[in-house]
């Protein structure tokens, strides 16, 4: 294969390397955090024996129910509020999900300087725009209405 | 002789798995779950649904590989139609299933230069933006409307699977101006013909515009979108089939990421659903790759179409029944 002129570009390989590391880190952490949660090693906000009561409800009703029954917060636990609950097994599992969902932003940010340096301005601006869009999605500023 | 027995055993296993997933018992189980009163106290059998989910997603992972479809497209209609979980959580989990599949495959495909970053970047920019819009709309609409639209989309996917053609290396006489300006081109080695294939694309603007719809639907239904990405990249834009399939898989890691954040921020992630689903699908995919050697792809493809047809009709039926319309 090496004698063929089919190698991936420098930024493509860099992107792939970061994506791979993030994917392995996220998946490994997911297995660990889920084991801590499901084996009862860490306490959880919603007891594992009660979660089946809530998962058939629409997400808004579910959030109201767990807030009323367990959290007693003034606002519903949406956005990044799970960060305050990382000491609990069920919400600790949000951490690997966030890593898996966030690694792409990092990939884009890392390849952008190289694209600018090579004068590949169109792709560089596209990479920046994508990073901004994904960050905006991650920020929680874009909220959907409930039903 | 031994090979014959292995082939038959493999086919029997896959048929059994498909039969389980097509069984009306799933429908009855769902109806029972829908009607069951919410218990006041914790359920001592809480573990049974995650275990069933693990088993079903394991089977789904096998079928997805053998049928050449993404996990998300099977996950949402089947789990949404036949499990007691609300569609909001199913769509959130479906996006994460599709995302993890794409993250697992993406790095290898990029390094092998089968997935093209230059082809994916403009497409991803449009698809991921629209996936955010789709996710927001999907979460704002009443569930029965989403269920109905999901059913219609699944039936549309069945139609695409039945009719869409593929072109191994499409004829692209001349790259268009936009793809030339963005230098969306590449070369890959085709081992079957021992040739280096230079590829380029055309109809870039119509192709990119199509991803407005694809991204929206991916976000709205949490389906992943390989079923739509591949025909557009391959047949409309003229990328070789291998490049289209690989780039589509990688593309999901970006499109689904944007929509996944909306679902995550909205609270549509229940780890007790998500983690068994991810583990099941990944283990199933692992076994599926090995079964590929003995399974008959045409037979599996028909099975996938039958499963999707059944799940699509079920979604339509659920959506209509909420509106007081009884179909069957």
Secondary structure: elements and pairs:
The complex is a heterodimer of chains A (147) and B (328).
Chain A: H1 10-38, H2 51-54, H3 59-71, H4 89-92, H5 94-117, H6 121-139
Helix pairs in contact in A: 1-5, 5-6
Chain B: H1 2-22, H2 24-35, H3 48-67, H4 71-82, H5 87-111, H6 117-140, H7 143-163, H8 177-181, E1 185-190, E2 195-200, H9 204-221, H10 226-236, H11 241-266, H12 271-291, H13 297-322
Antiparallel strand pairs in B: 1-2
Helix pairs in contact in B: 1-3, 1-13, 3-4, 3-12, 3-13, 4-5, 4-13, 5-11, 5-12, 6-9, 6-11, 7-13, 9-10, 9-11, 10-11
Features:
heterodimer; A: 147 residues; mainly alpha; 6 helices; B: 328 residues; two-stranded antiparallel ribbon; 13 helices
Description:
The complex is a heterodimer of chains A (147) and B (328). With 147 residues, chain A is mainly α. Chain A has one domain. Helix content of chain A is 63%, strand content 0%. Chain A is built from six helices and no strands. In chain A, helix 1 (10-38) packs antiparallel against helix 5 (94-117). Chain A is elongated, with a radius of gyration of 20 Å. Chain A starts with 9 loop residues before the first helix and ends in an 8-residue tail after the last helix. The mean pLDDT of chain A is 92. In chain B, strand 1 (185-190) and strand 2 form a beta hairpin. The radius of gyration of chain B is 20 Å and the shape is globular. Chain B has one domain. The longest helix of chain B is centred in the C-terminal third of the chain and has 26 residues, at 241-266. Chain B has a two-stranded antiparallel ribbon with strand order 1-2. The termini of chain B are far apart. Chain B has helices at residues 2-22, 24-35, 48-67, 71-82, 87-111, 117-140, 143-163, 177-181, 204-221, 226-236, 241-266, 271-291, 297-322; strands at residues 185-190, 195-200. Chain B is mostly helical and 328 residues long. The model of chain B is unreliable at 24-40 (pLDDT under 50). The interface between A and B is large, with 75 and 76 residues.
């Amino acid at each position: 294969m090496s004698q063929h002129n089919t190698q991936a570009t420098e930024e493509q390989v860099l992107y792939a390397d970061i994506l791979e590391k993030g994917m392995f880190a996220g998946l490994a952490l997911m297995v660990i955090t889920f084991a801590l949660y499901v084996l009862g090693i860490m306490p959880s906000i919603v007891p594992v024996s009660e979660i089946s009561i809530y998962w058939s409800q629409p997400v808004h009703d579910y959030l109201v129910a767990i807030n009323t029954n367990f959290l007693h917060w003034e606002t519903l636990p949406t956005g990044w509020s799970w960060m305050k609950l990382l000491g609990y097994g069920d919400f600790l599992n949000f951490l690997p999900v966030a890593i898996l969902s966030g690694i792409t932003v990092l990939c884009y940010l890392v390849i952008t300087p190289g694209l600018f340096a090579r004068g590949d301005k169109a792709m560089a601006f596209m990479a920046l725009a994508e990073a901004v869009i994904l960050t905006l999605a991650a920020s929680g500023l874009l909220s959907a209405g409930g039903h | 002789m031994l090979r014959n027995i292995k082939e038959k055993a493999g086919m029997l296993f896959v048929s059994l798995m498909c039969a389980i997933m097509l069984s009306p018992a799933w429908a009855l189980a769902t109806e029972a779950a829908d009607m069951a009163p919410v218990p006041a106290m914790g359920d001592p059998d809480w573990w049974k649904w995650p275990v069933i989910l693990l088993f079903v997603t394991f089977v789904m992972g096998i079928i997805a590989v053998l049928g050449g479809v993404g996990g998300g497209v099977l996950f949402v209609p089947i789990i949404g139609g036949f499990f007691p979980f609300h569609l909001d959580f199913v769509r959130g989990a479906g996006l994460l299933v599709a995302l993890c599949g794409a993250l697992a495959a993406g790095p290898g495909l990029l390094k092998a230069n089968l997935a093209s970053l230059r082809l994916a970047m403009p497409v991803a920019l449009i698809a991921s933006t629209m996936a955010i819009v789709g996710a927001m709309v999907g979460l704002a609409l009443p569930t029965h409307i989403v269920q109905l639209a999901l059913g219609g989309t699944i039936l549309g996917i069945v139609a695409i699977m039945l009719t869409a053609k593929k072109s191994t290396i499409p004829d692209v006489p001349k790259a268009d101006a936009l793809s030339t300006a963005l230098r969306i081109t590449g070369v890959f080695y085709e081992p079957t013909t021992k040739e280096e294939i230079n590829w380029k694309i055309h109809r870039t603007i119509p192709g990119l515009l199509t991803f407005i719809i694809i991204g929206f639907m991916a976000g709205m239904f949490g389906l992943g979108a390989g079923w739509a990405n591949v025909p557009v990249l391959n047949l409309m834009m003229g990328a070789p089939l291998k490049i289209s399939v690989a780039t589509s898989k990688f593309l999901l890691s970006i499109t689904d990421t944007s929509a996944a954040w909306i679902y995550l921020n909205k609270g549509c992630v229940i780890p007790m659903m998500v983690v068994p689903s991810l583990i099941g699908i990944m283990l199933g995919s692992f076994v599926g790759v090995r079964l590929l050697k003995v399974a008959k792809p045409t037979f599996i493809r028909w099975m996938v179409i039958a499963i999707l047809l059944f799940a699509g009709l079920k979604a339509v039926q659920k959506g209509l029944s909420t509106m007081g319309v009884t179909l069957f």
